[in-house]
């Protein structure tokens, strides 16, 4: 097997003295979709922050395309190809949709209009509202703006923390379809999801995180078929 595009191994760390991550491992292959599920407070968002460099690890390493990036800041990781959509505060509500996308392109010196057009093609509903303040959009459209904002740096790894939080089932399906479309262009996806069943259906690899450690790791379909995983984490 080829070397994974993202490889985070043995991550330990947290906020202050208490460790939230207790030896968590996450890998994503090129162009594949990795999904993290698990109970509230399991450390899913903390693991994403650690991969993105927003949390100092006490132990462990993060490798992107074979390069050790453990010591890099989030901004440096963006330059290396990471895009991150946090769970909360992931748009600028009082700025227009277009301004949000421009903010997303902050590290780019070149002409990013073609990327912006690609984002609008991916999310046509958002394109129609490009002059409106992002805060006026529906929940699903705000999430599309957030994903679009992260795509503006043309990441090779797109990290999404609960992209379908608070949206209807139809909007969730639609968003998952768009995420699959992004992955098909060769972008690796690392995604945390509360809608565990639906997310695991599209997962090349799934992680069940419990108390900051990997409880189960397998392909999405295998996790969905695992009686223990179903009973404990998927409601039967
Ligand atoms: N900034 C912070 N300072 C201190 N503790 C925090 C902070 N953020 C999270 N925690 C704690 O770390 C633990 C893991 O939180 P985290 O947000 O990573 O969980 P999660 O799996 O993403 O949960 P959820 O499903 O609710 O999003 C929780 O006990 C939480 O209270
Ligand atoms: Mg979270």
Describe the structure.
It is a single chain. Helices cover 36% and strands 25% of the residues. The protein has 236 residues and is α/β, with parallel strands linked by helices. It has a 6-stranded mixed sheet, with helices on both faces. Strands 2-1-4-5 form a 4-stranded antiparallel sheet, covered by helices on one side. A hairpin with a 2-residue loop joins strand 9 (205-210) and strand 10. Residues 15, 20, 38, 40-46, 87 line the site of adenosine-5'-triphosphate. Residues 6-236 form the ABC transporter domain. It comes from Paracoccus halophilus. GO terms for molecular function: ATP binding; ATP hydrolysis activity; branched-chain amino acid transmembrane transporter activity.
The rounded distance between the terminal residues' Cα atoms is 33 Å
Give every kind of bound small molecule, once each: adenosine-5'-triphosphate, magnesium ion
In the CATH scheme, the class of one domain would be Alpha Beta
**Widest sheet: strand ordering:** 6-7-8-3-9-10
The gyration radius over C-alpha positions equals 17 Å
Low-confidence stretches: none
GO molecular function, one term: branched-chain amino acid transmembrane transporter activity
Family: Belongs to the ABC transporter superfamily.
Protein name: Amino acid/amide ABC transporter ATP-binding protein 2, HAAT family
Organism: Paracoccus halophilus
What keyword list fits this structure?
alpha/beta; Rossmann fold; binds adenosine-5'-triphosphate; 10 helices; single chain; 6-stranded mixed beta sheet; binds magnesium ion; 36% helix; 4-stranded antiparallel beta sheet; 236 residues
């Amino acid at each position: 097997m080829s070397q994974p595009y993202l490889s985070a191994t043995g991550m330990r760390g947290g906020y202050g003295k208490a460790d939230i991550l207790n030896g968590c491992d996450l890998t994503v292959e090129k162009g594949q979709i990795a999904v993290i599920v698990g109970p509230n407070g399991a450390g899913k968002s903390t693991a994403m922050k650690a991969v993105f460099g927003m949390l100092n690890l006490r132990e462990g390493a993060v490798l992107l395309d074979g390069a050790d990036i453990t010591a890099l800041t989030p901004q440096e990781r963006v330059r290396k190809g990471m895009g991150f959509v946090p769970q909360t505060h992931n748009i600028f509500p009082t700025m227009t949709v277009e301004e949000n996308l421009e903010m997303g392109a902050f590290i780019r010196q070149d002409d990013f209009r073609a990327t912006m057009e690609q984002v609008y093609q991916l999310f046509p509903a958002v394109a129609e509202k490009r002059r409106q303040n992002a805060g006026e959009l529906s929940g699903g459209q705000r999430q599309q703006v957030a994903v679009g904002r992260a795509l503006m740096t043309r990441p090779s790894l797109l990290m999404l923390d609960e992209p379908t939080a608070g949206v209807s089932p139809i909007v969730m399906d639609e968003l998952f379809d768009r995420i699959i479309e992004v992955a098909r262009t060769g972008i690796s996806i690392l995604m945390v999801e509360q809608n565990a069943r639906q997310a695991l259906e599209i997962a090349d690899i799934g992680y069940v995180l419990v108390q900051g450690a990997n409880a189960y790791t397998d392909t999405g379909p295998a996790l969905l078929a695992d009686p223990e995983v179903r009973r404990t984490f998927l409601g039967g």
